[in-house]
Amino acid sequence: MILTVTAQRPAPDVPAGDLGFLLHKHPDRVQTAEQGAVTTHVLYPESSPERTTVALVLEVDPVGLVRTARGETQSVLGQYVNDRPYAASSLLAVAIGRAFSTALAGRCTARPELVDLRWPLQVRLPAVPARSGGPDLVRRLFEPLGWDVSARELPLDETVPGWGASRYVDLVLEGSARVADLLAQLYVLLPVLDDAQHYWVGEREVDKLVRRGGEWLATHPERDLVTARYLKHRRDLVLDALDRLADVDEGGAGPATTPAGDGEEQRVPLREHRRAAVLAVLRESGAARVADLGCGQGQLLAALAADARFTSIVGTDVSVRALQQASRRLRLDRAPDPGRVQLFQSSLTYRDDRLKGLDAAVLSEVVEHVDPPRLPALERVVFGDAAPATVVVTTPNREHNVHYPQLFDTGFRHADHRFEWTRAEFARWADGVCARFGYSVRLLGVGDADPQVGTPTQLAVFSRGVAA
């Protein structure tokens, strides 16, 4: 099993041989490491100022792999007769993570200026499994990432043409990219193409997927397929991962917290700061009967259900699929207190009497998904008809978008956003709601504040019948 990466000069004053600094592997030495049944070699078939090639070669002991196997379930024959010794499977992804860990993390202590350079690269993988998709699947995965893809279907047996094609391709990628980005993409997509990981897939794999793929996977057209196959179709894990990838703005992070487990610092996602801020407001209000309007897949509902002070919880969404996912997340079919949490489909632009009698309602990252001409209808439904004592609204702060290098063509953080307000625009809207429906409002921020552009998320707490 072999992977080669060939780099040319990324800049006139940067020789191609400097790739060795990024990979933390000297071109003049062969480096070997053993890990269980796999022996990994890193070597340089060529190294010059104009062109440098690094090769990652794996020697796999099939018998030793069976003795240490945890993730795969195969027939007895399949344990010993398989493609592990020669195909670029999840074994290669793990080897990339171990052999090039600092480069994968985007670090280079000796030459930090090399990290963000875009290198002209050619990547060769002579035998890549492409289960349930073939060359077309390979192109669907790599072309959206900017690679020119050559995926030649390999014959089952070159000496017997009548047997047809195998499920393997000879893959060549060409393009310009940061080395860290290339490694992250291979780290995620090789197990996806393999679709038969050799290791146990649990909650840690969700963290790895989001950490390695978050910057590009959230907007990838095959996001759902990548997530499902990377996590071996474990429904609970897939839902969790999709939740964490759903909003592009979640790339914004709060202060560093606990180590991620491989030397990197793990960041607290903005969604967690936002959820904590909403829960704090609800607890401060003394609300017991609470609704999450536009609840999506139920992340906030799960946090509400875990707090006994919220005795009646309602989740609504216009999407039936989202409600089904929320129901699975909450395990409502096994809930010890049936009726405490209720889910139902509802549109926030149409009156719904089931929303009356609430102490508090939350619209978290909802209003920006509504077409501006429909906002007055939403206001009437929430502040006029339902009229809970407390309404909590969160929405992105458009001014903070200068900190997000990857935005959609609209300049917004999410493809479905109809608008994003500045702080002044949000304040004007909130004051208008108060004047029309008899509320007062308190404006807060969520996430790390920039002295020039404020926090990434804006939060408004509306209180009915209370003087400002």
Automatic annotation (TrEMBL):
GO terms for biological process: regulatory ncRNA-mediated gene silencing; RNA methylation. NCBIfam families: bacter_Hen1 (TIGR04074). This is Small RNA 2'-O-methyltransferase. InterPro entries: 3'-RNA_MeTfrase_Hen1_bac (IPR024026), Hen1 (IPR026610), Hen1_N (IPR024740), Hen1_N_sf (IPR038546), Methyltransf_12 (IPR013217), SAM-dependent_MTases_sf (IPR029063). It holds the Pfam family Methyltransf_12. Belongs to the methyltransferase superfamily. HEN1 family. It is an enzyme of class 2 (transferase). Its EC number is 2.1.1.386. GO terms for molecular function: metal ion binding; RNA binding; small RNA 2'-O-methyltransferase activity. It catalyses: small RNA 3'-end nucleotide + S-adenosyl-L-methionine = small RNA 3'-end 2'-O-methylnucleotide + S-adenosyl-L-homocysteine + H(+). Residues 249-268 are annotated as: Disordered. SUPFAM superfamilies: S-adenosyl-L-methionine-dependent methyltransferases. Keywords: Magnesium, Metal-binding, Methyltransferase, RNA-binding, RNA-mediated gene silencing, S-adenosyl-L-methionine, Transferase. It comes from the Bacteria. Residues 292-381 form the Methyltransferase type domain. Residues 1-246 form the Hen1 N-terminal domain. Its cofactor is Mg(2+).
